Amino acid sequence: MTNQNHKHTALRILHLEDSPEDHQLVVRTFKQSVEPVEIKRVDSLADFDAALNESVFNVVLADYRLPGFTALDAWALMNQRQIRLPFVLLSGAIGETAAVQAIQAGISDYLPKEDLQKLRHVVQRALEAHAVLMAKELADVELAQSERQLAQFAEHLQATIEQERSAIAREIHDDIGGSLAAIRFDLSWIERHTTQAESLVHVRAATDMLQHAVEASQRIMMNLRPALLDHGLGAAVQWLAKNFSKRTGIETLVKTQLQTEKLPSPIELTVFRTAQESLTNVSKHAQCSLVRLDLTADRSFITLEVADNGQGITPPGGNQTGGFGLKGLNERAKTVGGWLDISSAHDAGTTVTLMIPLADSAAETGENPS
Ligand SMILES: Nc1ncnc2c1ncn2[C@@H]1O[C@H](COP(=O)(O)OP(=O)(O)OP(=O)(O)O)[C@@H](O)[C@H]1O
Ligand SMILES: [Mg+2]
């Protein structure tokens, strides 16, 4: 699609010019070049098109006014063919209107014919600028591609982690949960059949310990795979907050306003994991006394806000090197079409906000607003 500069071959110039004399002047200018130069002249749009199709050029020189068309038409044709070449207007006075039009169209190089002695320099500059532009565009494309790959990788990683978590949760449930249930059964049997006071004390102590183990395994399972999500996102977030408060002693206020039916699971899981990681961050970094969780959803958006009254993120913008929690949340939000916003001020707390547009809103905008 692009005609690139081949270093060891001649510089190939396509000259759009109806005057053979003016063309000869250009040819003479390039005669003094050390490097070999090939110049082809065309004077109609059809020939210009054919020349571009037939061979590779490095640069186009174009007179402005030609019989029946202007350089702008040639430029438009080149763009239409998706051929990217440096394009130098080499013309007599073209007037301000035409100059403005040329600039608006994207042509940036113009040399009046009377300044012909500068032509080689102008062409060289145009070639260099074009090479830089091409390199930048290529870099942009590569960057976009690697960003896409990174996003895909993050999505894949997240999915793998969730699967792994589910598998571990299932094992805890089936294996440890099953064993604990069996122990409970046996302990209660012993309790019923023992008359010895000393044994009973031990059995009850064991039963208490067992209760603790059951609760711990349920909590671990819940963190791994929020089964509570089956009962609704609100309930699951409430559970997270209650547990967090119990574990850390930080006062936790929850407000939920969900005016929607059950949301798609990836969205619910994203919200849940965002709340989970944000609370973990609060306990690790915030040194605060209060955290508020605000969960609202209407037909167009679901929003989660986790705000603490702690010391804020230092340095601002978060830890650039270590720490993948917030980066992970960012990527995760994108996978469901949402975004994450983190605002923080020194000693004025940190607020993490997740917003996800809901499918309903897309459907609404597509509808006839009658
Ligand atoms: N609520 C908060 N209050 C104060 N600082 C915070 C808060 N949340 C995050 N930070 C700061 O932002 C940084 C980045 O957070 P992030 O969750 O990405 O990483 P982490 O918690 O350090 O490590 P990881 O989450 O990977 O275990 C943290 O290291 C911390 O300095
Ligand atoms: Mg973290």
CATH class division of the largest domain: Alpha Beta
Annotated CATH topology of the largest domain: Heat Shock Protein 90
Cα Rg: 35 Å
N-end to C-end Cα span: 47 Å
Spell out the helices and strands N to C. Answer: EHEHEEEHEHEHHHEHEEHEEH
Counted beta strands: 12
Number of domains: 2
Shape assignment: rod-shaped
Q: Largest sheet, described in full? A: 5 strands, parallel
> Architecture of the largest domain, CATH level 2?
2-Layer Sandwich
Order of strands across the widest beta sheet?
2-1-3-6-7
Task: Return residue spans where pLDDT drops below 50 for at least 5 consecutive residues.
Answer: 1-6, 361-370
So, the CATH homologous superfamily of the largest domain? Histidine kinase-like ATPase, C-terminal domain
Bound compounds, each kind once, are: adenosine-5'-triphosphate, magnesium ion
Strand content: 15-25%
Structural class: alpha/beta
Question: Helical amount among residues, as a percent range?
Answer: 40-55%
Task: Please tally the helical runs, counting DSSP H or I stretches of 4 or more residues.
Answer: 10
Characterization of the model:
This protein is an alpha/beta fold and 370 residues long. The chain has two domains: 11-139, Rossmann fold (3-Layer(aba) Sandwich); 229-366, Heat Shock Protein 90 (2-Layer Sandwich). 55% of the residues lie in helices and 18% in strands. It has a five-stranded parallel β-sheet with strand order 2-1-3-6-7, sandwiched between helices. It has a five-stranded mixed β-sheet with strand order 8-9-10-12-11. Strands 4-5 form a two-stranded antiparallel ribbon. The radius of gyration is 35 Å and the shape is rod-shaped. Residues 281-282, 284-286, 308, 310-313, 318-319, 322-327, 350 line the site of adenosine-5'-triphosphate.
